[in-house]
Amino acid sequence: MEKMMKAIVFKRYGSPEVLQIKEIAKPVPRNNEILVKVNATTVTIGDTIMRSLNLPVAGWQKIMARLYLGWSRPKRPILGMELAGTVESVGRKVTRFKVGDAVFASTFAADFGGYVEYKCLPEKGVLALKPHNLSFEEAAAAPGAGMTALTCLKKGNIQPGQKVLIYGASGAVGTNAVQLASRHFGAEVIGVCSTANLALVQSLGTSRVIDYTRQDITQCSETCDVVFDAVGKLDPKQGKQLLKPGGVFINVHTDSDGGNKLANLLIIKDIIEAGQLKPVIDRVYPFEQIVEAHRYVEQGHKKGNVAITIS
Ligand SMILES: NC(=O)c1ccc[n+]([C@@H]2O[C@H](COP(=O)([O-])OP(=O)(O)OC[C@H]3O[C@@H](n4cnc5c(N)ncnc54)[C@H](OP(=O)(O)O)[C@@H]3O)[C@@H](O)[C@H]2O)c1
Q1: Which of 17, 148, 274, 291 is deepest in the core (most CB within 10 A)?
Q2: What's residue 311's pLDDT?
């Protein structure tokens, strides 16, 4: 008889209430796949956009996004772009993993689907052994924002001692970017965030924080080698005013393509295990409170990441 598992499914676009816990068939790994018992996943701003179809783009980009996601109803009915868990079984041809391994993964190229008790992933997908110094919740939050921040910052060709400004420093991408820029690339980092997040951002390795609710950052007297808008809300003209001659302006929306790769996940794992990066967890919700988690994340003010535990 077919075995069943719990999954959070959405059949139509809409408010968080469209997310419902259902019993669906437990997947069986193919020869080249592993079956992961999922311990934790996340809710990102991207999950809330795909759920609501409240797309932050217009024109042909909106048309392309709707074709990809499903024009009138979701093509991929289970959200969740990253996860961490334990290998439950492996296909006949699998060599990279064994039963019992703790792993973390991006499910971006695997039709999403992290909001489940069990997920099959190709062994050559964007997955690796879980960093030994992270909890499952922290590891689940590491792939997406970590690889995005790394890909964007690499475009700045940052040299030790250079000055880097991270705008939107308190979000998932921002908290990764601050730590990577300061602790991995050795830059002097200025973080920009709101009053409530000053202490958090300072603790991640900045030399200075600017409260954008109290100070017009274009009036900042310093100029930088790199300005990274990690939240996509800074007018590029304003961002470029803060650059030294020859400096680089980076935007999370236009500069993060191509980052979702196994090679990048392995770099992130090494950086985490070297103690230079730790995902910031704002809140952890149980699986049953997915609606509350989506309501919180879509307000756009989370600090770092929101994780979901699946027991
Ligand atoms: N997370 C990922 O894996 C990922 C991957 C690829 C692309 N992206 C894209 O990257 C962007 C950022 O994603 P995210 O996950 O980092 O978002 P997020 O965590 O939801 O961002 C929330 C944070 O942004 C800050 N913020 C909001 N408005 C701001 C403003 N006007 N100025 C400065 N800070 C502001 C908020 O703090 P305050 O409101 O207190 O200022 C809050 O801490 C999104 O467009 C997302 O689609 C994300």
Answers
A1: 148
A2: 83
